[in-house]
Design a protein that fits this description.
Elements: H1 3-16, E1 20-29, E2 34-41, H2 49-60, E3 68-73, E4 77-87, E5 90-100, H3 104-121, H4 129-146, H5 151-166, E6 170-177, E7 180-186, H6 197-212, E8 216-218, H7 229-238, E9 242-250, E10 253-262, H8 270-293, H9 297-313, H10 318-336, E11 338-351, E12 355-358, E13 363-368, E14 375-376, E15 381-385, H11 388-413, H12 417-443, E16 445-447, E17 452-456, E18 466-467, E19 472-478, E20 482-489, E21 501-506, E22 509-528, E23 531-540, E24 552-563, H13 564-583
Antiparallel strand pairs: 1-2, 1-5, 3-4, 4-5, 6-7, 6-10, 8-9, 9-10, 11-20, 11-24, 12-19, 13-15, 13-18, 14-17, 15-16, 17-19, 20-23, 21-22, 21-24, 22-23
C-alpha cells in the first residue's frame, strides 16, 4: 500500500473524528510479523508510546470485528482507540487515534467511524492500473471535500466536484428528516426552491433508494430486481435519462443520499457507480459528524434523546430488551405483592421422653443383645453382665444361712434363750445379705423399662470390658411422642415466637409435610458450622408410625406476610446495612 495513499486516508479519518489529537496507521508485515508505520497525523507526529501500546493491544486481540478503547489520566484525560483491519482473515494493519476525553456515546461513535473507514481500506488491493487510479481519485476527491470549513461548504464542494469528475448535468444532496429525504444542496444552484417540482421529483427518487436500501442506477440492467418508478418519473419529466442514487450510511443507518443526473446517451457505468459508492462510504462519517457539529445545541440534545429512546424501545437487541423488561416487570410485581414469609431452619427429631440406662453394679459386660436402632419391648433383656462372683457370693451366703438355721434349732431344743436371740439376729442378717445378692443378680440382666427404640449405645465391641456403677450403657426413647429441634439462624431468630405454626419435611419423607407448633426458644446461641444458631423446640401435631428419633430435614415457620421483593433481598440488604454501619466513622 502506497505511503501517500495511506497518509491521505488517515487524514480523512482524522477529519471525521471529533477532538482528535494524534493518529497513526501501521501495516502488518506477514513475513517478520512486525508492525510498520505507514502514516501518522499530524505528518511530523513522533511515535507516541500510548498509541503504540494501544496498537499492540489491538494486535493481540483475536476478534476480527472489535476495537480497543482506553482512557489515560495524567494532567489531562485522553481517550485512545484502535481498530484492526482484516482482509480474508489476515491482519492488514491497525489504525489508532488519540482524542480528548469524551462521553461513552461519543466514544462509541468514534469506534464506529474507525470501523467504517477500516471497511473501506480493507477492499481488495487494485489489480489493474485503472482500478488503482480509481482508488486514488476517490481519496483525492474525499480529501478535497473534507478540507472545507463547515458542513454547508462540504455539501457545495461535493456536488460541484462530482459534476466535474463524472461530467454530470446535475448533482443533488438530500438529508433524511422524519423518514423522508429533503434536498438540501443542488449543484450550480445558490438559491433552491424546496417546493419546485424538480426538487420534489429528486426527493422521491432519493426516498426510493432509501426504501430499498440499495444503490439505484437508472436505466436498469436486465437482471436488476430493484424498483425504479420515481427514477422513471424524474427522467420522463425533467429530461435526465441517466440517474444514479447512492445512500450515505453511518452506524447502519441511512442519513443522506446523493443523486447524480446526466444525459441518457451517457449512462453511468458499473465502475462509476462503484466509485460513487466507495466515495460515499469514505465520506459518510465526516458528513455525519460535521452536520451534527453545525446543529444548534438544542437540536443535538433532542436528537440524542430520540436516539436513546429508540435504542431503548426500538427493535434492536430485542432479546436483551425483552429480558430487561421481564426483569423490570418481575421487580415491580414483587415490590407490590405480598406472600407468605417463612423462616427456614435445619430440623431433627428427638423423643419427647429420653431415658438413660446405666450399669446397675460394677462389673464386666457379658453379652450385648441389642444396640442402637433396635426396637425393644418392655422387659426385654438388652444386655447382661458377668454374674460369676455374685453366684459364688450367693452360695456362700446360702451356706451361712443354713448353718445359722441349724444352730438356731439346737439352741431352741436346749432352751437357751439368749443364744436363740443371737442366732435369730444372725439369721435375719444372712437372709438380708442373700436377698441383696439375689437382687444384684437380677440386675445383671439389663431390661428395657418400656416399649422403646434404642437411640444410642452399642456394647458389642465392649464384651468383657469393665464398667463402673452408674456408667451410661444405652439411651432409649419411646416410639410415640416426638419433639422437633430446630436450628434457627441468628438473622432469623427475631421473627420466631412461641405458638407459631409451621411445617416439617424430612429427608426420608420428602413428599410429606408434617404440621408443627413452636413451644420453646432458647435464649443462648451456639456456634455450628461457622454460624450462630438458636435451638428452638416444636411439637408435632401428627406423628406417623414411620418416624424415628434422629431423622433430619428442613422446617419452615410461618411468621406472617411480607413483600416478595423484601423476602428475596433482605439478606443482602441486612448485610450491606451491617457493613456500612461497621465502616461508618
Amino acid at each position: 500500500m502506497a505511503t501517500a495513499f495511506a497518509q491521505n486516508w488517515l487524514e480523512i479519518q482524522c477529519r471525521s473524528i471529533q477532538y482528535v489529537e494524534r493518529a497513526i496507521f501501521v501495516l502488518a508485515d506477514s513475513e517478520d510479523r512486525r508492525l510498520k508505520m505507514a502514516a501518522s497525523w499530524p505528518v511530523d507526529n513522533e511515535k507516541p508510546s500510548e498509541l503504540l501500546a494501544t496498537v499492540r493491544l489491538a494486535a493481540r486481540k483475536k476478534n476480527t470485528d472489535g476495537g480497543v478503547r482506553a482512557t489515560l489520566t495524567s494532567n489531562q484525560r485522553f481517550d485512545y482507540f484502535a481498530w484492526p483491519i482484516f482482509v480474508n482473515g489476515h491482519l492488514l494493519g491497525i489504525v489508532a487515534v488519540q482524542t480528548k476525553h469524551q462521553e461513552k456515546p461519543v466514544q462509541r461513535s468514534i469506534l464506529q467511524t474507525l470501523k467504517v473507514g477500516a471497511q473501506w481500506l480493507a477492499l481488495p488491493e487494485p489489480e489493474t492500473e485503472k482500478q488503482e487510479q480509481l482508488f486514488q481519485n476517490t481519496v483525492r476527491l474525499a480529501l478535497g471535500i473534507t478540507d472545507q470549513a463547515d458542513y454547508r461548504a462540504m455539501l457545495t464542494a461535493l456536488v460541484n466536484l462530482l459534476i466535474l469528475e463524472l461530467h454530470c448535468d446535475r448533482v443533488s444532496f438530500g438529508a433524511v428528516k422524519e423518514q423522508h429525504c429533503e434536498v438540501v444542496a443542488v449543484s450550480n444552484s445558490a438559491n433552491m426552491d424546496a417546493k419546485a417540482n424538480l426538487i420534489k421529483a429528486v426527493a422521491h427518487a432519493m426516498d426510493e433508494a432509501i426504501d430499498q436500501d440499495s444503490i439505484l442506477n437508472f436505466p436498469a440492467v436486465a437482471n436488476d430486481q430493484n424498483i425504479y418508478r420515481a427514477h422513471k418519473e424524474l427522467a420522463k419529466n425533467f429530461g435526465s435519462g441517466s440517474i444514479l442514487t447512492v445512500p450515505l450510511v453511518h452506524q447502519q443507518k441511512i442519513f443522506a443520499t446523493v443523486t447524480l443526473e446526466r444525459n441518457e446517451s451517457h449512462p453511468f457505468t458499473a465502475s462509476e457507480a462503484n466509485f460513487c459508492h466507495q466515495l460515499m462510504l469514505l465520506l459518510a462519517p465526516s458528513f455525519y459528524m460535521r452536520e451534527r457539529l453545525d446543529q444548534p445545541l438544542t437540536k443535538r440534545l433532542s436528537e440524542d434523546a430520540r436516539d436513546s429512546f429508540g435504542a431503548v424501545f426500538g427493535l434492536s437487541r430485542l432479546r436483551l430488551k425483552l429480558s430487561l423488561t421481564a426483569a423490570a416487570l418481575l421487580v415491580g410485581f414483587s415490590a407490590f405483592t405480598s406472600t407468605q414469609f417463612n423462616v427456614s431452619a435445619g430440623a431433627a427429631l428427638e423423643g419427647r421422653i429420653q431415658r438413660s440406662i446405666a450399669a446397675p453394679i460394677a462389673g464386666y459386660i457379658d453379652t450385648a443383645i441389642a444396640r442402637a436402632g433396635d426396637t425393644v419391648d418392655q422387659g426385654d433383656i438388652i444386655a447382661t453382665m458377668d454374674d460369676s462372683e455374685l453366684r459364688l457370693q450367693e452360695a456362700k451366703l446360702e451356706a451361712q444361712r443354713q448353718q445359722t438355721n441349724r444352730a438356731l434349732r439346737e439352741a431352741m431344743a436346749t432352751r437357751d434363750l439368749v443364744q436363740v436371740r443371737v442366732l435369730n439376729a444372725q439369721l435375719d442378717q444372712a437372709n438380708a445379705e442373700l436377698k441383696l445378692v439375689q437382687d444384684q443378680l437380677e440386675r445383671t440382666r439389663i431390661r428395657a423399662p418400656f416399649n422403646a427404640i434404642i437411640i444410642d449405645g452399642d456394647l458389642s465391641d465392649q464384651l468383657g470390658a469393665p464398667v463402673e456403677r452408674g456408667d451410661s450403657l444405652f439411651r432409649i426413647a419411646p416410639l410415640s411422642g416426638y419433639r422437633v429441634i430446630l436450628k434457627v439462624r441468628e438473622q432469623d431468630i427475631a421473627f420466631v415466637q412461641n405458638d407459631q405454626i409451621g411445617t416439617l419435611t424430612l429427608a426420608s419423607l420428602p413428599g410429606e409435610h408434617l404440621p408443627l407448633t413452636v413451644e420453646k426458644i432458647t435464649a443462648v446461641a451456639t456456634a455450628e458450622d461457622g454460624a450462630n444458631v438458636f435451638r428452638v423446640e416444636a411439637a408435632l401435631s401428627e406423628a406417623p408410625e414411620i418416624l424415628r428419633p434422629g431423622m433430619g430435614g428442613v422446617a419452615k415457620i410461618n411468621v406472617g406476610e411480607r413483600r416478595m421483593l423484601w423476602i428475596w433481598t433482605r439478606d443482602i440488604i441486612d448485610w450491606i446495612r451491617l457493613k456500612l454501619w461497621s465502616w461508618w466513622p
